[in-house]
Amino acid sequence: MNQSELSPTNLQAFGPVPTPRQLAWHKREFYGFIHFSVNTFTGREWGYGDESAGIFAPTAFDADQIVRTAAEAGMKGLILTCKHHDGFCLWPSIYTEHSVKNSSWLRGKGDVVRSISEACGNHQIGFGIYLSPWDRNHPDYGGPKYIEYFRNQLHELTTQYGELFEVWFDGANGGDGYYGGANETRSIDRETYYDWDSTYEIVRRNQPNAVIFSDTGPDIRWIGNEDGIAGEPCWATIDKGRLLSERRKTSPKTSLNDNMVGAWDSPTAMLTSGHRHGCSWLPAECDVSIRPGWFYHASEDDKVRTPDELIDLYFQSVGRGASLLLNLPPDRRGLIHEKDVASLKIFQSRLEQIFSLNLAQEARCSASNIRGGSQIFAAENAIDGNPETYWSTDDDANAPAELILEFPKTVTFNILQLREFLPLGQRIDRFALDVEASGAWKQWCCEQAIGSRRLIRGQICTTSRVRFRVVSAPVCPAISELALYCDLKTRSTPTEERK
Ligand code: FUL
Ligand code: CA
Which ligand is nearest to the CA of 39? Predict the structure, then answer.
């Protein structure tokens, strides 16, 4: 009998738990966004909707180069802006003329969605779609005919391009647009206009494994900022009722993105941190661009995020139990620019270097308590490299509880990685790590929230004993992984400090 078969009887889940599609998504952690449209050729960030399809003219579009760049950077999927707010479609939709079929690119015979989705298949990474609900080109936007159009397009995209891992619905709705020449401001009621439940139904029917992203879910929530930074802590759970009622208090005719700055209990602050005892499992995704803009602008060629900045983002998103959705905008050739490629290459090799050696695997591991004294919940499960096994305690020995790692010879580390066994929920409130120094325990960190993956960067230290403590938890823990790493790049700092 394996541990997961035992868990329902032996160990009750705590609070909400992820659905199978959310669980699969948690494993993806780092994936990319591709913003590509008429904006790439006009220099805008939000096209007005009056751009001629003819201006979409990449000179050397190469889906393989784009997807290879993403895959080699360690991304496990790519989400393409099939239609941004300007309404221009990167696939030859049968429902509009405003698409690649009327562009000069490949004499109207190209299909960016097809090419990128196939390249994702070739590189064995997931493919996802972004379809903007707001459409500044469509004459019927704001009325019922547009909803039919939007759903028809969603149907095309969810049936003609293979399996999708994520469907991304943008909350932005700026009001004004070309709207087929009308040139006016059209405001919609974001609560009711799209009748989201019926729209989500299309995705569920055609792509049952895809997670749906929008500001407030249903599967994945927005992190509340476009900086790529999750809250500290960031809970996977949230009180959706409270979130939605606070959101309703802000104007229903704007998008959540329009209320970016707010008080602690503002909807965006809730999205950033989640709620410890929230009743929905709704994990966060951190979207951010490798450049200041979402679309390519030559003027930003010198503003590409550096490998160090990307590493920081990774720790502030993936390292807080969220995912990192990093945007790579193709340029006017239809390629990821050399500067972005160069930064991603160094970033990826730094990541590989950091996580290449898990020092914890060299330790002997013991625990203050093992559930039922059983091997099934053994201390070693936390360091066995198997995500399906975990350490747990008896119900009355949940906190404080500790794991002690003893090393045959001293180890030097500055990074701690933890994971909880997610099918049993997010169980730990607060934890600490201590290191032994001159015969006494010294606290190395004390933080809240673990969840899918928690990374803590701290002081570099050399020791032969490490103690992990569950400081506070309402139920017994289920720690599936405790790992220690050393980031070579910062190895020199502490020597300086020790002097
Ligand atoms: C926002 C949009 O308005 C931006 O243009 C971009 O697509 C970003 C990912 O989402 O809401
Ligand atoms: Ca394990």
Answer: 1
Ligand 1 atom closest to the Cα of residue 33 is: 9
Q: Which ligand is nearest to the CA of 391?
A: 2
Ligand 1, pocket-test mutation among 85, 294, 296, 324, most atoms within 8 A of CB: 294
Measured in Å, residue 81 CA sits from the centre of ligand 1 at 10
Q: Which domains does the chain have, with CATH numbers?
A: 35-354 (3.20.20.80), 359-497 (2.60.120.260)
Regarding beta strands 211-213 and 284-289, do their DSSP bridges make them parallel or antiparallel, or are they unpaired? unpaired
pTM of the predicted model as reported, rounded to 2 decimal places? 0.95
pLDDT band at 251 (very low <50, low <70, confident <90, very high): low
| Per-residue model confidence as pLDDT tens digits over 235-246 | 999 999 999 998
